[in-house]
Amino acid sequence: MSDNIIEVRDLVKDFDGFRAVNDVSFTVPARRIFSFLGPNGAGKTTSIKILTTMLHPTSGVVRVNGFDPVTQQNEVRHSFGIVFQDPSLDDELTAYENMEFHGVLYGMDKATRRARIKELLDFMELWDRKDNLVKEFSGGMKRRLEIARGLLHHPKILFMDEPTLGLDPQTRNHIWGYIRNLNKTEGITVFFTTHYIEEAEHVSDTVAIMDHGRIITHGSPDELKRQTGASSLEEAFLKLTGSAIREEEASSTDRARQRYHRMHH
Amino acid sequence: MKVIYILWLRQLKRYFRSKARLVGSLGQPLLFLVALGFGFGPIFQKAGGGNYIQFLAPGVVAMGILFTGIFTGVDIIWDRQFGFLKETLAAPVSRLQIMLGRTIGGATVATIQGIIVLLLTFAVGFRLDGMGFASIVPAVLLMFVIALLFTALGTAIASLLQDVQGFQLIMNFLVMPTFFLSGALFPLEGLPRVISDIASADPLTYGIDGLRGILTNSAHFNMYTDVLVSLIVMVVLVAIGSYLFTKIEI
Ligand SMILES: Nc1ncnc2c1ncn2[C@@H]1O[C@H](COP(=O)(O)OP(=O)(O)OP(=O)(O)O)[C@@H](O)[C@H]1O
Ligand SMILES: [Mg+2]
Questions:
Q1: Whose C-alpha in A26, A35, B141, B239 is 20 to 30 A from the C-alpha of B97?
Q2: Interface confidence (ipTM) of the complex
Q3: Model's pTM, two decimal places?
Q4: Which domains does chain A have, with CATH numbers?
């Protein structure tokens, strides 16, 4: 087996005539931290959904931990954990119950499950609130719980779609410290997206930049900076993707309709 | 097994935590029982139908099960809306297990609802004829079959719907006709042909008739036919629901 834990070749995803992912190819080396950057609507979430068996690709070849997300869904699902971009907690359950549910779903034995739930809720400063219903939580608390849940079962690959969305800088640093440690000690491959480019620069081994459904470049943060003559990854990112705001650019009614559609899912 | 259990448990917790839903879904059967039971009682008696409460009670019990079953099945739409569905669908467990856990959980909830309604019917004068208290156990078992049937139906429909807008549609074009055309409110004897044909195609008809057979020894069809039909429809709907559920994309 090659040392690439994720391989994507010529991936295409169409939504009724609109091409959200357009002939994308990339690989992610095992045990590394890989960030997937790009402006709004670039196709990052769509790509992650395909990698994690939630959506079927229109065409292309995808391998996650050596398995095909279309035909070997179960093996793929055994290989990853995920923090979704959109909320995915059960509001009517308590924080603890959400964690417990996840642990059981992922087949963790009771002792490990209990110990790790305690550890993670402590770490996220949610232990005191563990028996509160999630609907009573603030936005930041919910986000922290989502991340804690994603970190519970130590998968081979951890997908995180804008995990730190809406969190303050202190919390973000704190959480990234934990994730990097997990990456080092357990060799967990981390695949994440973010709009905080300085965060990506700080933690990633490799960065891929996507725009309008295509990968426009990838490499280490230093390589991308050198390539564009920029002093920070954020500057490199802006040089590569331009400064047009995506929502305005996507002016056709068709795209607006699709966005509307997506919001209502 | 543990997966099915945790999903089952989740349905129960959600149900018992939402007091509004619990009380709200009892209101309708209770209203039917009191308003129709006492309202039509004298006419029914005069027409030679006997005690209307005795006739109506099994139908109202089934009504409680129908409503709660469909709604807990349709819950998937809300899980999709609030995002929790992703959490279950991304997990390394078969979708069949997820579907079964949810459906058995929802059906348990619906059966409990049915039992509560049954207790309420005793309060307004319903009495067990025939087997007496021995009929409670088979009645609850049949109630569970009916509950599974409609929870699976709710799951199947919800798997096809993208958002909650379709909800009203289900209510008006599925749940209400299923209830009103089932023989819950009127005897199946001497009906116009069309209504009688529709009633015999309505799975709830057999559920209710079976309950009547068990609780008051007054089935229109054969009680065993009723149970058999309910079982078969239930198995078919669970299979269809499972199939549609495995096809969901997020
Ligand atoms: N279910 C869907 N139906 C139709 N169009 C969709 C659907 N999901 C996504 N799209 C479209 O595909 C494109 C890519 O969306 P995607 O969510 O992958 O972007 P993203 O890179 O994750 O953006 P963001 O940074 O805003 O999260 C967008 O134009 C979006 O409107
Ligand atoms: Mg996204």
A1: B141
A2: 0.87
A3: 0.89
A4: 4-264 (3.40.50.300)
